[in-house]
Amino acid sequence: MRSTCIKTGLPALYVLLLFSCSPARQISRSAQSTLLDKPGLKEAHIGISIFDADKATFLYNYQAEKYFVPASNAKLFTLYAALHYLGDSLPGIRYAETPDSIYLLPAGDPTFLHPDFMHQPVFDWLKKTHKELVISDGNWQEKQLGFGWSWDDYNSGYMAERSSLPVYGNVIKWTQVIEKTENPEGKMVDDAFVYSEPEVSWKLQFNPVKGNNFIVVRDQHDNIFHVTEGKEILRTIEVPFVTNGVLSAIDLLRDTLQKSIIYIPQNKSRQADHILYSQPLDSMLYRMMHRSDNLYAEQTLLMVSQKVLGVMNTEHIIDSLMKKDLAGINQLPNWVDGSGLSRYNLFTPRNFIWVLQAMQKEYPTTRLELILSGANKGTLAGYYKGLEGAIFAKTGTLSGQVALSGYLKTKNGKRLIFSILVNNHQTSTTTVRRSIENFLVGLYNKY
After folding, report:
1. Domain of 384?
2. C-beta atoms surrounding 141 within 10 Å
3. Is the peptide bond before 11 cis (omega within 30 degrees of 0)?
4. Which is the most buried residue in 185, 195, 330, 383, by most CB within 10 A?
5. Distance (Å, rounded) from C-alpha 361 to C-alpha 408?
């Protein structure tokens, strides 16, 4: 028999009914029906934490102190570090200038020559100077791929290499266009045309046999690209290039600037005592979070490292942040990269409540709501329709892992912070996301 929330003359029964109708009990029932007991999720590992920001109290926790692979929810910690240390503009390049030369020290800025940004102050400045350009990367103390990344994703656009001087997002954009042309016999035939942005002088090898799909595969350790033409009329794909420190960037810059650029060892460089800034910080953070851009996230953490430690080193800056800025966190996460690509990352739902609460206290709500994806926008596109202005969150997705953490303003005006981490599921990502959506929409309507 279902109990109802009514007063009764029996004190013991009244207490029982109050408990059964408490927010925690209601949320628990909703979690069971929409998430925990759903087909495909029963066998998964799930952690849930719901926090009332106005009352500063937890409404509901389910395995909230257990550790999960957070996927791109790790970007929330990168975001916090960026807001705390990078000011309002990105350092585009560090430099020292003499009467004859400009000595450049890369700043790790991922927006340099990136197609997301039409205005390129660093490039324009380099273009108009007549002085000799000299580059050193003595501040680089990192590897191109992160700890625990899947090595066989090296050809995927979402796993571009990290570097001290990113250019074009450290990817080559390959496009195939099929056009109708007339052959010598006067017949109209399909003619495939392949081009790259930027244009590259690196080695191309074309497969003599065409396939159904246009494919470009790079050698794992060299900038040799194998092209298979497909039947698509128009298709564009992004393939990371091997950065070789700053050497690949220098190759591309020489072609773009049409200037000589000299690379020198650290001990022959000069102290870079000037900074040229590039883009407003939030313009990059918006794209990082709305698109869940991994390179932006990795380079953001490296820029923080440069600012705090004077060098670019992910492990060292995470260690520094954990000891200082995150010293009050409830449980220590195992945080290893800026993007969440690594499965060595381990966070609890309560970790995300902590960092979201910290950001809410330290930064204007309007700023956070612009940076995070809202209902039916960014990585939440197609989800939470009707909750526009009510939910702002960060998704996370790896094979078998789904995460969502953020802010929710309920129909009754309650401000909630939530974190839901799902690991080791054996169903589709869409099924998990829709189940989380059903749970949060119920929370929005009832609390």
Report:
1. 11-83+288-446
2. 16
3. no
4. 383
5. 15
Selected residue with higher pLDDT from 18 and 173: 173
What is the number of domains present in the chain? 1
In a domain, 271, yes or no: no
Q: What pLDDT was estimated at residue 1?
A: 38
Which of 317, 357, 336, 392 shows the shortest CA–CA distance to 69?
336
What is the widest separation between alpha-carbon atoms in the chain? Answer: 98
pLDDT in tens, 402-439: 999 999 999 999 999 999 999 999 999 999 999 999 99
Q: What are phi and psi of 336, to 5 degrees?
A: -125, -15
- The pair of three-digit structure tokens given for residue 135, joined into one six-digit string: 């580059």
Report the distance separating Cα 122 and Cα 113, nearest Å. 9
Tens digit of each residue's pLDDT (9 = 90 or more) over 231-276: 999 999 999 999 999 999 999 999 999 999 999 987 666 788 899 9
Give a yes or no: residue 241 inside a domain. Answer: no
| Ramachandran class of 189: left when φ > 0, alpha when ψ lies in -120 to 50, beta otherwise | beta
Count of Cβ atoms closer than 10 Å to residue 121 Cβ:
16
Task: Quote the pLDDT of residue 343.
Answer: 96
Q: What is the pLDDT of residue 355?
A: 98
Dihedrals phi, psi of 141, to nearest 5 degrees:
-130, 45
